[in-house]
Amino acid sequence: MKIRKANVYNGNDLITNVYLYENKKQEYSMIAIPELEWSTTVQYEEDREMLKSRLIQSLSKRASANTSDELAGKMIHWVGEM
């Protein structure tokens, strides 16, 4: 498991830790943001544009639009590094 520092504001709250877990055998990553009580899985073969859209849509239920967009961009970058 890896922990990345997002340092993104959602209103007055600072979202700091984003947890990333990679399951190489089953070819997916899990992303969790406890401060938002949010998590999802990302399949290796998932299209990046579709992924960004899905992440923004899911995050927007718990965060502002700007925060969702910024977090989605960072998460796509981090998952791509793994």
From TrEMBL:
Pfam families for the chain: YueH
Organism: Metabacillus rhizolycopersici
Protein name listed in UniProt: YueH family protein
InterPro entries given in the database record: Uncharacterised_YueH
